[in-house]
Amino acid sequence: MQESIDREVFSRGSKIFRDGEPGNCAYLIEKGSVEISAHRKGKKFVLAILSEGELLGEMALIDDSVRSATATALEETEVVVISLDYLKNKFDQADPMLKLLLNVILGRFRATQRKFLGQSTGQECFTDQTASETEDRIYKKDRERVLNDLRFKKELEQALKRKEFELHYQPIIALNDGSISSFEALIRWNHPVRGLIPPNQFVGFAEETGLIVPIGIWVFEEACNALNSFHSKLAPKNRRKPRISVSVNASTKQLFEPKFVEKIQLVLQQTGIDPKYIHLEITETLLMENPELATITLNKIKEMGIKLIIDDFGTGYSSLSYLHRFPIQTLKIDRTFILTMLESTGSMEIVRAVAGLAHNLGIEIVAEGVETREQLNQVRDLNCDYAQGYHFSKPIPISGAFKLLEKGI
Ligand code: C2E
Ligand code: CA
Ligand code: CA
Asked: Do 155 and 75 meet the contact criterion of CB atoms below 8 Å apart?
């Protein structure tokens, strides 16, 4: 790929760009100075003099319009060229709200500039009507997206207030004796009109908007309450059996929120839960995004007595080298490996190698997405410690989880 940031030198008096030209790059002045001017009715208007460190030509990049002024080097001037491709890429990834705001501000700025030039020359080069039509065309898509996002965010906030979320529980089986060792708590949105909405339709958005933070605390609290009822239901019958645990998913946004540890500590106190029955599932991305902060936070969580699980193992950066660096007790091998294991020796060998290495480090292995007896036999042969998947049970409401606990898998 071509380097997107280049340098150019302009001699005194030369034009960097001209009014009306298509704008395909912006410039950052490294040395020298530039005059920005516009001509109306044969008269020149100097709009600005820019010097070292200042940016020019950026407006055309943002709203894809032609240059609305001319830039002339006032002395030998060196600039860094910022290409449209480079910026477009960044801009396209930006939050739609920021894009809309930027476009609106830019549109208003251009309108003011046009008005100023119009007044100075006694000529209206653009009517407000044409300008707003152009704006409408440009912003329509962004505006719709922003409106949809705002609506969806409001709906999610209300869902939390109205207690429309619920947790379903999927059993995780200990392969040494076939008993239920824990349940993974998985969120669903019980929408009054649309019915049960799966997490992949709202968790990503909740992460983007930060709403996952309050939702995540609700999940944690609800899971602790469920754990209390599992324990009290089981207590009389299975006195000698180890108590079951609950696994809670936590996204990067939640873990890196400064008050996360404090908040879960409070929930544990309020619900009277012994932290050793809580497992926190996090993904590899979290560890790689900010390893230093991840280490600090994860150590705090481990010190509380909560067990840490790496979820979807093998789908991210998958650097085995980090395993000893973070205080992890369990790895959950992603279900794509389990799915392809019987057909692909590659997948099988990966599971075998990961299980071997993890065991040497004192880390336990959960095989996720076990759907058939053959897969179950295979993961058992490969020395996995636990298994989870449709073969045992889909995620089910708490009432179903109680029944499973009573009758066993
Ligand atoms: P995950 O943490 O990897 O959860 C496992 C997903 O795999 C669940 O989907 C589960 O229903 C599905 N699954 C389990 N066994 C099988 C199987 O044998 N075959 C197949 N095909 N699928 C299986 P679900 O419940 O739709 O959750 C999807 C994702 O949403 C979760 O993936 C997790 O990343 C996220 N999620 C769910 N609940 C929460 C939550 O409370 N907080 C956060 N941050 N994320 C959550
Ligand atoms: Ca999970
Ligand atoms: Ca997973």
From this structure: no
Ligand 1: residue of 173, 184, 186, 215 to mutate (most ligand atoms within 8 A of CB) is 186
- Give residue-wise pLDDT tens across range 187-242: 999 999 999 999 999 999 999 999 999 999 999 999 999 999 999 887 656 555 66
- The string of pLDDT tens digits covering residues 366-395 is 999 999 999 999 999 999 999 999 999 999
State the Cα–Cα distance between residues 140 and 199, nearest whole angstrom. 29
Distance 20 CA to ligand 2 centre (A): 55
Give the count of domains, the chain. 2
Of 352, 347, 258, 264, nearest in space to 308 by CA = 264
Task: Answer whether 170's CB lies under 8 Å from 395's CB.
Answer: yes
Position 308 in a domain: yes
CATH number where 179 lies: 3.20.20.450
Q: In angstroms, what is the span from residue 295 Cα to ligand 3's centroid?
A: 21
Q: pLDDT digits over 267-299, tens only?
A: 999 999 999 999 999 998 877 888 888 899 999
Q: Are strands 278-283 and 307-313 parallel, antiparallel or unpaired?
A: parallel
Range of the domain at 374: 163-407
pTM: 0.80
DSSP 277: G
What distance in angstroms lies between residue 284's CA and the mean position of ligand 3's atoms? Answer: 11
Please report, for the domain that includes residue 78, its CATH number: 2.60.120.10
**Ion ligand 2: residues, CB < 5 A:** 249, 281, 311
Which amino acid residue places its CA nearest to atom 46 of ligand 1? Answer: 249
How far, in Å, from the CA of 191 to the mean position of ligand 3? 24
